[in-house]
Amino acid sequence: MAKQVRVGELEGAVMNVLWRTPEGMTAREVLTALPGPELAVTTVLTVLDRLQRKGMVERKREGRAHRYTAARSREDFLSALMSDALDSTDDRSAVLARFVGSMRPDDTDVLRHLLRKRRGSAG
User: Please, what's the b/e burial string for 20-53 (b: 16 or more CB within 10 A of its CB; e: otherwise)?
Assistant: First the structure.
């Protein structure tokens, strides 16, 4: 299995903006939607280019600009991060036990439901 792509803080902020906008955005629109201090549009373009090279975003020409969209969902990305974390340890049981122990009760209920559903479809 390939290692999961890591993203930096600004890359993560850009991805959060794109995940909220499935129709995609231009770099200038991303810039406007980003929280925090004002950035240069060239900075946002650099980040979008890096994310495209990492396979996180896709771009299509739209007039003189490009429209950027997330290449995969936030859920797919986070699931791959969790799988990568498990693949990086020799003691998966210990990591899973700590993870489950840190879950909120309603998350534990969802996990139980999903495990029951998985067992039902496996048999």
Answer: eeeebbbbebbbeebeeeebeeeebbebbebbee
